[in-house]
Amino acid sequence: MKDLKNEKILAAKEAVKYLSTGQIVGLGSGSSAYIAIAEIGELVKNGLDIKGVPTSEKTRELAESLNIPLLKIEDVDSIDITIDGADEFTADLQLIKGGGSFLLKEKVVASLSKQEIIITDSTKKVEFLGKFTVPVEVIPYAQNYVLAQIKKLNGTGKIREVDGKPLITEQGNVLIDGDFGLIQDPAGLADQLTRIVGVVEHGLFINIATRVIMGVGDSTESFTKL
Ligand SMILES: O=C(CO)[C@H](O)[C@H](O)COP(=O)(O)O
User: Catalytic center at which residues (predicted)?
Assistant: First the structure.
């Protein structure tokens, strides 16, 4: 049986090799990113001088607990490198993110980043995105409209719930998990979702990742833009 936790650890250890002193580092969210943050905490303890930019409150709390110095996103113009996770990726580095509900901040941080390194276990690589649903962050007022528009795109949408109630994101929005089947044209779907009024952002990360490091058994595989 695959040891997915170990695969994430191996990927995280490989990713932090890209860090160097003086950098501003985006800190992702999710179980893989938290492993990387723990590694970064160790490196900081041993003298690595970086400043982190968190992608969620949970990440901020974790980084603070590890004494990683932090910057506010408002105070940075550019981020040198971000390490984050993903729910699915393809060989040409298109991603679905947002399983952990933090896609909006993750995409802002990724968009500011010169390098976006994604770390995953070996279950996340797919030929076509779409087995994992596409999270769509929506202002609550527009949720029924957006659900109807998703239908027009031949998709089905479901409001994400926690304990029987709609999950409210850190930005006060709701998430619709959109099922579009296997996605043949992720960039096209991303454009269509962006154009729906009331959609704040979605979890298709198109041409954003610069490298994916995937743990496989006892080693890692690295994917870069072809
Ligand atoms: O996008 C995310 C959170 O919004 C996560 O990076 C994604 O869900 C992967 O999580 P994990 O590393 O726990 O598998």
Answer: 106 (proton acceptor)
H runs (alpha helix) in 76-142: 103-111
150 Cβ neighbours under 8 A, 6+ residues apart:
136, 156, 157, 176, 178, 196
Which residues of the chain fall short of a pLDDT of 70?
Answer: 226
Spacing, Cα 28 to ligand 1 middle (Å): 8
Pocket residue to mutate for ligand 1, from 32, 117, 170, most atoms within 8 A of Cβ: 32
Determine if residue 57 is left, alpha or beta; phi over 0 gives left, psi from -120 to 50 gives alpha, anything else beta. alpha
Instruction: Give the distance, in angstroms, between the CA of residue 165 and the centroid of all CA atoms in the same chain.
Output: 23
Residue whose Cα lies nearest atom 7 of ligand 1: it is: 86
Q: Are residues 118 and 139 in the same domain?
A: no
To the query of whether residue 106 is one of the catalytic residues in this protein, the response is yes
Q: Tokens at residue 3, please? A: 């040891």
Claim to verify: residue 28 and residue 111 sit in the same structural domain: yes
- Is residue 190 included in any domain, yes or no? yes
Cβ(103)–Cβ(135) below 8 Å: yes
Domain containing residue 187: 134-201
pLDDT by residue (tens digit) across 54-66? 999 999 999 999 9
Q: What is the pTM of this model?
A: 0.97
- 105 and 160 share one domain: no
Residues with CB under 6 A from ligand 1: 28-33, 84-87, 97-103, 106
Count of domains in the chain? Answer: 2
